[in-house]
Design goal:
The protein is α/β, with parallel strands linked by helices and about 260 residues long. It folds into two domains: about 5-115, Cobalt-precorrin-4 Transmethylase, domain 1 (3-Layer(aba) Sandwich), CATH 3.40.1010; about 120-250, Methyltransferase, Cobalt-precorrin-4 Transmethylase, Domain 2, CATH 3.30.950. About 30% of the residues lie in helices and about 20% in strands. It has eight helices and ten strands. The strands form two sheets. It has a five-stranded parallel β-sheet with strand order 3-2-4-1-5, with helices on both faces. A hairpin with a 7-residue loop joins strand 8 and strand 9. The longest helix has 17 residues, at about 235-250. It starts with a strand and ends in a 7-residue tail after the last helix.
Amino acid sequence: MGKVYIVGAGPGDPELLTVRAVKILKEADVVLYDRLINEDILSLTRPGCLHIYVGKEDGKHTIPQEEINRLLLYYASLYEKVVRLKGGDPFIFGRGGEEVLFLADQGVPFEVVPGISSFYSVPAYAGIPLTLRGVSSSFAVVTGHEATGKEKKVNWEAFRGVDTLVVLMGVRNRQRIAGDLIKAGRDPDEPVAFVERGTTEDQRTVITTLREVAENPPEVKPPAVMVVGRVVEVHGRVKEFLENLKVLEGTGHAGG
């Protein structure tokens, strides 16, 4: 039986991979990778390494989680080093916890390699700090995937007093989320930022308010991180500097 490595690939920029992740990818026999994994990251693997796509799209689960688990077990029975490559950090809304529980139940050796999560790195690339002295002393991270429908489980009132709220996978439900947050007591004029394709060359930041999102939501395409709170105002103050830096350095670090 081989070993499975549950590896976080970070938010998109290949330079945000950890040293440990790079080492394991270069030694991998098989890589089962998610949607949005940068091709430059996959190119780090050695010749002959198998690349197996097991990605899921919002509302379109092309491969059920049970099938992914089965594939991990299957390839671990054939190869020495199997990598399960997941965007961001595997334990932050990445179902990595489910996979390690399955592997443990099956007696398959595994290792978890944490990755840089999009919940803080994407706002950071847009010049938005989650905490700021005198402005935000608390933040929370929530999935917007369970905001509507049969899976609705989010208690938005619990986040009423949190200074900064970060919503992942919330683009499709953004109008409902904004309305629920207003109903829960958050200020309708509170600033909101959507950062699309953060840390990549295609990064784009949309600034609006909770009221506008609830009444006339801006055009936003996934993947995007939604940030609610006064810290969003920092983006406007540093936007010009970040855009100049992007031009000078040729990076996607600042998207405006």
